[in-house]
Design a protein that fits this description.
LprI-like_N; Substrate Binding Domain Of Dnak, Chain:A, Domain 2; elongated; mainly alpha
């Protein structure tokens, strides 16, 4: 990973340039960014929606770390039957879900494509789907047959 291909460096440079170019367009006064109880502008609503999504994503990542440990521990005690293990299945499911979330929420945002409302629609969609996914992941911390917490799950 120490060496980057020229194409990768170009993509990274383009991404950095794009982020830098777009940054001034989303800047709003600090008082608006901090008041998500009653945001007054679309820009403030967009920022609050992003912050709400960031909280949902942080919780998903907390549960993910716990579930990853549980899945890897379950693999230590599983018999080899030629099927993917707990960890491989969890990772495959999460990668598929991430692709679904991003494509679905992009589509939701297209209802306001190119408009100032689009970022709020995308963030709201991601928040909703992320909270639902977090709940599904929490359910995986419990044995579906016995109802007991799986080994390694926080109690």
């Amino acid at each position: 990973m120490r060496q980057l291909r020229a194409g990768g460096m170009i993509a990274l440079s383009l991404a950095t340039a794009l982020a830098t170019a777009l940054a001034p367009q989303v800047a709003i006064p600090a008082r608006e960014a901090a008041d998500c109880a009653e945001p007054l502008t679309q820009a403030a609503m967009n920022i609050c929606a992003v912050q709400d999504y960031a909280r949902a994503d942080a919780e998903l990542n907390r549960v993910w770390r716990e579930l990853r440990i549980v899945a890897k521990r379950a693999d230590e005690h599983s018999r080899a039957d030629g099927r993917p293990g707990h960890w491989a299945s969890l990772l495959e499911a999460q990668r598929a879900w991430l692709g679904y979330r991003d494509a679905h929420c992009r589509l939701v945002g297209y209802d306001a494509r190119g408009g100032s409302l689009e970022p709020m629609l995308v963030s709201g969609c991601k928040t909703e789907l992320t909270r639902a996914r977090t709940q599904r992941m929490r359910e995986l911390l419990t044995n579906q047959v016995s109802g007991e917490a799986k080994a390694g799950a926080e109690k």
